[in-house]
Amino acid sequence: MVWYNNPESNRVEAAVTIAEKFNGYPGIAHGGIVAAILDETAGRAVMLDGNFDNLFVTLRLNVAYRRPTPTNTPLKAVGWLDHKGSRAMKVAAELSLPDGTVTTECKAVVVRPTDEIAASWEPEKKFWRVQEE
Length: 133
Fold this sequence. Notes:
Layout: E1 4-6, E2 11-17, E3 23-25, E4 28-29, H1 31-44, E5 57-65, E6 74-83, E7 88-96, E8 102-111, H2 115-120, E9 131-132
Parallel strand pairs: 1-9
Antiparallel strand pairs: 1-2, 2-6, 3-4, 5-8, 6-7, 7-8
């Protein structure tokens, strides 16, 4: 997935199609895959200000499955920041169908990792970038 900052809505957005091999049941995406997409999307909302070194980790993730998320269907993932703090932030995300119907949503608390953990991520940082539209 590639995430983009949308400055007009102050949200991070990505398009995704979940392949059938990631189903829980035929034609329906596995809930764990859906949760992972939402976790990644919500987590990237902390970088909406363009500070791509501002990495946090998920402390708590609450997922609400509103309806089945289909496989092999173009979906839109959107994430945003609910509360900004220096050590912890509240973020949220949703996954929707092409008609705008939300299939799943999440709220999460993310926290700043220790300096030691953050230093170990240096080689991975280039993969965390959120693209500017």
